[in-house]
């Protein structure tokens, strides 16, 4: 599936290009030393770009698929999911698949909380999430929707960031995605930068 192409008159920079390096001899490592993993570029998504990507994702879906309802993967997937459902004029539902929900520590693998929407039975279903990397979350969502009796299931994400290939994606990038509703949070009644991105 082809990635998002911005409308005429608009241009976007998806990620910073790596700086050109001059050739140099690699440093010798001691037996105990290990090369560190290169840090990912950070892609700060603003609201206008999020809107354009959601519109592009809905158009990509509409060209090849006619879902009868849309299911957003909570928590972050409900935002693009609801927008895509509105553009396609289809009912919207959500389900919770998370590594963070109801725990102080991030789980190594995601888990499904609650049941899949009963309305998916015998329906063509589009599952929407904001990003897709390993595919662990999406595979759980697919299994839950399929087990609930869906007639057909397709997947769509705003950002494909790893090896797992959803049926539809608006943009493919290796960058760390910072979503517009996640960059700042309310603390003591004031908007402050989300501390989980302090190191970025």
Question: How do you describe this structure in short?
Answer:
By secondary structure, this protein is of the alpha/beta class. The protein is 20% helix and 26% strand.
General description of the model:
By secondary structure, the protein is of the alpha/beta class. The chain has a single domain (42-197), classed as Rossmann fold (3-Layer(aba) Sandwich). Helices cover 20% and strands 26% of the residues. It contains three helices and ten strands; from the N terminus they run βαβαβββαβββββ. It has helices at 47-64, 78-88, 136-147; strands at residues 42-44, 69-74, 92-98, 111-113, 124-132, 152-160, 168-172, 176-178, 184-187, 190-193. Strands 4-3-2-5-6-7 form a six-stranded mixed β-sheet, with helices on both faces. The chain has a two-stranded parallel sheet with strand order 1-8. It is globular, with a radius of gyration of 19 Å.
CATH topology-level name: Rossmann fold
Q: How large is the share of residues in beta strands?
A: 25-35%
What does the largest sheet look like?
6 strands, mixed
Order of helices and strands: EHEHEEEHEEEEE
Number of strands: 10
- Low-confidence stretches are 9-22, 26-36
Secondary-structure-derived class = alpha/beta
Radius of gyration: 19 Å
- Give the neighbour order of strands across the main sheet: 4-3-2-5-6-7
How many individual helices?
Answer: 3
Determine the N-to-C terminus distance.
30 Å
Give the helix level as a range of percent. Answer: 10-25%
Task: Please state the second-level CATH architecture.
Answer: 3-Layer(aba) Sandwich
Mean pLDDT: 83
Number of domains: 1
